[in-house]
Automatic annotation (TrEMBL):
EC number(s) reported in the record: 3.1.7.2
The protein's role, per its UniProt record: ppGpp hydrolyzing enzyme involved in starvation response.
Domain HD: residue ranges: 32-127
UniProt-annotated stretches for the region Disordered: 93-112
Molecular function (Gene Ontology), one example: guanosine-3',5'-bis(diphosphate) 3'-diphosphatase activity
Organism from which the protein derives: Oncorhynchus kisutch (Coho salmon)
Protein name (Swiss-Prot/TrEMBL): Guanosine-3',5'-bis(diphosphate) 3'-pyrophosphohydrolase MESH1
Amino acid sequence: MSSEAVILLETVNFAAEKHRNQRRKDAEQTPYINHPIGVARILSHEGGITDIEVLQAALLHDTVEDTDTSIGELQAIFGQTVARIVQEVTDDKALPKHERKRQQVEHAPHASHQAKLVKLADKLYNLRDLNRCTPTGWSAERVQEYFVWAAQVVRGLRGTNPALERHLEELFKQRGVEL
Ligand SMILES: Nc1nc2c(ncn2[C@@H]2O[C@H](COP(=O)(O)OP(=O)(O)O)[C@@H](OP(=O)(O)OP(=O)(O)O)[C@H]2O)c(=O)[nH]1
Ligand SMILES: [Mn+2]
């Protein structure tokens, strides 16, 4: 087996263990790990990305925000580059929600190319997930607001990956949201 395959299996296993008790917000309570795996898969399968550190960061992208994982732990196990990309896509959970959302819009244009790729794929996955089913407790208005906010973030990520941006553009168009 190639060393990159070994590395990706180590990474997905680490993420699966960290997210083991988490579920998505859908009625079926899908295992949370489906999301980071799907984000990495969008990057490789649809975005044509072969940069293994980007694919690893995609698998790990919600571990620091949503589990007990620290950036130092990621750095020790997966190296500085992977840890730095995850850091860049991690919201500061100490901030109030509206402030976190505002900072994503503000920070998006200044992220590294690698972090922009992960952010594009994360938004693409989550918007498709919203089209698939509405999270428990979300109104139609809240879903629409998520699309409007996501478009503001994606605006700052443009010029990064034409294929992913084309898919996102189409989803916004279907909702009547200007990109
Ligand atoms: N569409 C969808 N999203 C779900 C579901 N279950 C969990 N999520 C997560 O919920 C987040 C979006 O919900 P919000 O209410 O806006 O954010 P919050 O969880 O951070 O408070 C996303 O976090 P994130 O990946 O960190 O991205 P971001 O939206 O914070 O950028 C997404 O992954 C689900 O069933 N459907
Ligand atoms: Mn995510």
